[in-house]
What does this fold into?
Amino acid sequence: MMNKEVVDITIIGGGPTGLFASFYAGMREMSVKIIDSLPQLGGQLIELYPDKYIYDVGGFPKILAKDFVANLVTQAHYAKPEIHLGETALSAMRDGDHFILKTDKGTHLTRTILLTAGIGAFQPRKIGLKEEVLFEGTSLHYSIKDLNLFEGQNILVCGGGDSAVDWALMLENIAKSVTLVHRRERFTAHETSVNQLMESKVDVKTSLTVKAIEGEEGKVQEVTLAAKDGSEQKLSVDHVIVNYGNISSLGPLKEWGLEMDRNSIIVNSRMETNIEGIYAAGDVTTYDGKVKLIAVGLGEAPIAVNHAKAYVDPKARLQPLHSTSVFG
It folds into this structure.
């Protein structure tokens, strides 16, 4: 299907950065299109962590991911974007003053492109046990979409990052018991979260790995933990939550000729890639001093949009008036 209308900016990625970019492009009176390979807006927050609290966004001491995304979606609609979900961007080719953007479902015409693809397509990193498949989807989880499932249950959380620590703390007063096991002595989660963990009722076990999972009819019953010295201990658990991060790939974007550093797109201070008219923002980008946080992506989105606006309309003001300015 060919979309003949040429829009000012097409945002590839419907996570927080892409959604805020849509809103801001509307503020700059740009026509907007959003394309995302997932079936819903919100990116990883909705796909993996809808009931997890977010702590690193200004104005919200804490907010559930699903509520944060709902606010962003409402805000994004200010631009009246044309939204295409379940659609994967394949290639982009310059044709005069616009790009021909091809996806697995059609062709789109756009003057600029903003890549906000996060970590790209992702799959959860698994424990690596052959018996995992027997329990996946019933009592072994890589994401949590309903906390009520764990009420009154014995839970084992695996991992040492923010997601693992946050889930353990959130389940502390819901589950019957929560054990967190980490293969290392030190955690990679934020210091405040780790301190809260150590002061909580969560049973924290470090320098241990999951060696075996046993159970019947898709229900975990026992987990064996192993130390480096060969010693083992067994835990009776009802559910195992694995937070070892994700294996990600930018897929077709890697074939666009973009300058890359590993799995990230290199941008300058204007959020410009090495291809004129293509910008990037959020976790998909890298530059000297880059910090990958939602709050950072929300700041990069207006930078990219403002420069895209100036690219589309050279007469436009690069530095717009603030939203709090009084217009006469």
Notes: The radius of gyration is 22 Å. The chain has six helices and 22 strands.
